[in-house]
Amino acid sequence: MSFDFEEPDAAREARTELARLARSWLLVPPTDLARLHTAVATSPDCLVLDLEDGVPYRKKTSARTVAAQWLRDRVGWVRVNDASTRELALDLEILRDSPGLTGIVLAKTESPQDIDIVSAALPHVPIVAMVETASSLRQADRIAECSPVVRLAFGIRDFCSDLDIDGTPEGLAYARSTLVIASKTAEIAAPIDGPTAADDRDTVAADIDTAKKFGMTGKLSVRARHVDTINEKFSPSAHSVSQAHATIAELGPCGENIETGADRPRFISATAVLSRSRYFGRLEATKSASLAQ
After folding, report:
1. What are phi and psi of 199, to 5 degrees?
2. Which CATH number fits the domain 9-233, given the four candidates 3.20.20.60, 3.90.550.10, 3.20.20.150, 3.40.50.261?
3. How far, in Å, CA of 136 to CA of 152, rounded?
4. Which GO terms describe its biological process (predicted)?
5. Distance CA 90, CA 33 (A)
6. Going residue by residue through the chain (293 aa), what tens digit of pLDDT does each one get?
7. Which of 54, 45, 52, 97 is nearest to 76 (CA)?
8. DSSP sequence for 101-123
9. pTM flag (> 0.85)
10. Which whole-number Å values give the CA distances from 275 to 21, 280, 288, in the listed order?
11. CB atoms within 10 A of CB 105
12. Would strands 24-28 and 46-50 be described as parallel, antiparallel, or unpaired?
């Protein structure tokens, strides 16, 4: 089963909606199937089988084999190696016949040409493009405009290494803003923030708060124990949902009571909060039912 076929509209729409709204993107090296089963049990919105940084060179071949085994009857995203390596072609070749492949996370996306390489091998497969260098950031608007790209993701560690900067909120502010603006102008979903290096929950929560202030709506993670925090922090709070209901009650379900210019953005914001809240409620119910099987 390769990806040169027309997927049913309903399935494609559901997959695209999840890619647009997903909060937690858990990167897991496919070293063995048991490790992947353990990761799924933590209920990430998107499981990402990591064939790039998570796997040393000598284990790339065996990791591809495990990934292919997993995707025969289960689903998942795959982070593939970047276009400057010979590994990418090997990744794409084995994924062509993977029915459970949900999408591709492309490491170190430097240009639209990198996207073209992946989409030529895997037509109709959504792509999350990782921006990890200064040159990539300069190309962010063009990368975001590529039709297979559904979101941008921020590769913080490599970005900091490329620029020789610390990963402070101040040091990353310009990059985060650039990714959010590029996504908005390309009319794709808001970007995914990079993993938090620290392990404690408070630091992860603080990093998420910072990312949210810049307009990001999801986060990569290399630690399964961060998933609950990520999902919680990127979901509308009970207070924001209550406020949104009050706003809709005031302005009307269709905005029929809007009177001033200030009312419209309030209505749009409230509608978005309630839509996300309902979606995540359905998503969590689906994940719970799946784990119970």
Report:
1. -105, -20
2. 3.20.20.60
3. 11
4. oxaloacetate metabolic process
5. 20
6. 344 444 566 777 888 899 999 999 999 999 999 999 999 999 999 999 999 999 999 999 999 999 999 999 999 999 999 999 999 999 999 999 999 999 999 999 999 999 999 999 999 999 999 999 999 999 999 999 999 999 999 999 999 999 999 999 999 999 999 999 999 999 999 999 999 888 889 999 999 999 999 999 999 999 999 999 999 999 999 999 999 999 999 999 999 999 999 999 999 999 999 999 999 999 999 888 877 76
7. 45
8. EEEEEETT--SHHHHHHHHHHST
9. yes
10. 11, 9, 20
11. 26
12. parallel
Q: Which residues belong to the annotated binding site for Mg(2+)? A: 132, 158
- Biggest alpha carbon–alpha carbon distance for the chain: 65
DSSP 130-166: EE-SHHHHHTHHHHHTSTTEEEEEE-HHHHHHHHT--
Q: List binding-site positions.
A: 79, 132, 158
Annotated binding-site residue numbers for substrate: 79, 132
Residue count (the chain): 293
CB distance 163 to 136 below 8 Å: no
